[in-house]
Amino acid sequence: MPSPSTDDMSPAEFRDAAARLTEWAAHYLETVEQRRVGHAVVPGLVRSALPTELPADGASFEVMLGEVERVLMPGVTHWNHPGFMAYFPSSGSGPGVLGEYMTALLNQQAMLWSTSPAASELEDVVLTWLCQLLGLPPQFEGVCHEGGSASNLHAMVAALAATVPEFRARGLAGRGSLPRPCVYASSHAHASIAKAVVLLGMGDEALRTVPVDDQFRMRPADLAARMAADRRAGWLPVAVVATVGTTSTGSVDPVAAVVQVCAAERVWCHVDASYGGAAALVSDCATLFDGVASADSIVVNPHKWLFTPVDLSVFYCRRLDVLRELLHVSPEYLAGGDPPGVRNVKDAGMALGRRFRALKLWMVLRYFGAAGLQTRIAAHLALAQELAAWVDADPGFERLAPVSLSVVCFRAVPNHLRLEDNALDDFNAELLRRVNADGHTLLSSTRLRGCLALRVAIGHVRTSDRHVARAWESIRASADALLREYQAAGWRR
Ligand SMILES: *Cc1c(COP(=O)(O)O)cnc(C)c1O
After folding, report:
1. Is residue 295 within 8 Å of residue 316, measured between CB atoms?
2. Is the minimum distance from the CB of 251 to ligand 1 under 6 angstroms?
3. Shortest CA distance to 84 belongs to which of 129, 123, 38?
4. Does the pTM exceed 0.70?
5. Taking each helix axis from N to C terminus, what angle separates 358-393 and 117-133, rounded to the nearest 10 degrees?
6. Ligand 1 contacts CB of residue 243 (under 6 A)
7. Tell me: the pLDDT tens digits for 206-250?
């Protein structure tokens, strides 16, 4: 029971509770596949099962664990389930979860070197390892952030600082002599770029959307033309974002060509490889990464496809000093903490206090090893190709995008409904609902060329051929059943 005194939980109680949690966690991971992937609640159900006010008396861990089971678990979406193929899967891998546990336990604040030499130096070492695994040159310095959105925001800040004179002193607003800064990204770039542009006070209009080709890749010729026209109209191009692994289809922008445009125009080139970056570990994917090493900054999220639990994104930058100069502050309360020459990243980003995120990434990389990671990523790429082949071989389905990485987009195309796109959308929306309702698989959707597409993303460490086969069986069986219902209803629903 909670101590009535002023103490923390006693060591003995902690030991018992932690042992209980370990048992519970191991059982959860062992049996997660027997659960339904999706949650089982309606809005408000979790909230209504909890007291509206904090009870005065504390509760034991055993009581809390009971509440977790009873109240929270029904509202948990099982991202740990091997059938999770929606959005981008994130793996709570064994070593990753253990790393998180230790991070919480040690509770390091990696703000100065001296507030945690271990966290500061491990982050440096692990991000250097990852840099090498990604095939990037050593000029890239990495910083951990909480997510790809935060990393992309920092990339846009760096680009502004590198491009706008006196950005730190004078900002962006009220400077009549300063052309309006703008940023370029394809129509398939991640929404966090649009957010970053707004957060930085550039305004929605500053995001210049570059069209994509028939494979959802940015058209570099259109980029160059657009930029030239914008310059004539008084805009100041600040950054181009090329995406390696777009969110809808996993398409890969032609980075080498984008880098060339950026070099000619002296514009910051940022590569958003939040999801796709992991594929750089697999040599077969090398051509997709052509030019990436010449970018100014790159984002990779180990919490997507590198088996690291949320949250951990890495921002790599060739010129992190641009950010350090922009954000350098030296309040008295931090003075004198660090010996000269040590690396600290408090001025390379927004955060001061930072979680010891590198610990879990270190554990994941050390546990699987370079070869183990490569094997797993390669297996996911192969599974996506296999699923694409099954879709292609089935006349009842059509693929809606090429499979560059591990995302497969397609839809069912019953003959009778082919002529009407809305009817196909309705059919596929209902198909998605049924596949997700069966509890073995969780998929999401997107829209491609105006059509609703089912979207399968493979990237969970526990996903194997068995799970992808099961997903495909479920999709086909659900489509067949739905088709029979349409037929029975005379194709009117
Ligand atoms: C997921 C994703 C992001 C955002 O990452 P978060 O960690 O969710 O903030 C940005 N860009 C791309 C291409 C992504 O796939």
Report:
1. no
2. no
3. 38
4. yes
5. 30
6. yes
7. 999 999 999 999 999 999 999 999 999 999 999 999 999 999 999
